[in-house]
Amino acid sequence: MTSWKTIPADLWDVAVVGGGPAGMTAAMAAARAGAAVVLLERGERPGKKLLMTGNGKCNLGNRDLKPSYYYSDNMAMAASVLERFGTEETMAFFASLGLLVRERRGGLYPASEQAAVVLDALRYGLAREGVTILPQAMVRGLSVADKPASGYLVELEDGRRIRARRVVLACGGQAAPRTGSDGSGYELARSLGHRVISPVPALVQLHCGEKYCKALAGVRAEGVVRLYGVSRPGTGRGGGPWARPAGPGLFRSGCRPRRSTPPGRDCRPAE
Ligand SMILES: Cc1cc2nc3c(=O)[nH]c(=O)nc-3n(C[C@H](O)[C@H](O)[C@H](O)COP(=O)(O)OP(=O)(O)OC[C@H]3O[C@@H](n4cnc5c(N)ncnc54)[C@H](O)[C@@H]3O)c2cc1C
Predict the structure, then answer these.
(1) Ligand 1 mean position to 265 CA, how many Å?
(2) Cα 236 vs. chain centroid, distance in angstroms?
């Protein structure tokens, strides 16, 4: 584990806040471009949420990638990002880390089907590129240093301070806050004058009030889920405890309702 003593007191080229997949990838890209990079992660180690992904198997990409699958007021930006870094670039990036990837029904997974292997590949990649990882580094404040050439002052919860020419904010959203992403990144962005668009749920589970649903716990079936008040049904496998329905179809449907329109829902078998 990197200790504070190994962190030089002078100016870093880049400080990346947040050690999720976004932060690790950004840190690696900056280091590959020749920057001296420090990665600041509030947890014991980077990538805690990544270990939960794809039910522990990490669905790391998909052949079928289109801007229309994203929710944004700025679809041109979504298109431009995917144009520059689509499925082929994702495959090439993981290949550069030595990760074997296999395809299942268009989805990309590590050949080992273990999210932990993806995390290991990213961590080895960071080490190879010389990125310094500082764990237990909760960033509380960000400000522009007095002299513009001095970049940013990054303040940690425990009082330590770091200076960096550039800062990448990669603190995640608010999903699964026990993994570290509790929305503190939004505050850091606001403190620098950025406008933050209110987040809405993405892939979420739905909760049923009816007690009889408990009897269906563990039943898996291909089906259609319709949420009242929204136009497109979600389809796919639904399973797990039906008092807390789960599965891709339900997750996909869950992202559609807005806060102001609590949905009804209807589950039926696929035709
Ligand atoms: C159960 C589950 C399953 C999923 N399955 C998949 C899947 O199969 N495929 C897929 O593509 N996506 C999946 N996702 C979504 C995926 O995990 C996220 O999109 C991804 O982790 C986002 O990466 P990130 O780096 O932006 O944020 P995060 O992974 O949330 O990482 C943010 C990091 O920043 C750190 N941090 C936050 N605030 C601070 C601070 N102030 N100072 C220092 N550090 C801070 C956090 O501790 C955390 O480590 C899943 C998500 C969940 C919850």
Answers:
(1) 28
(2) 23
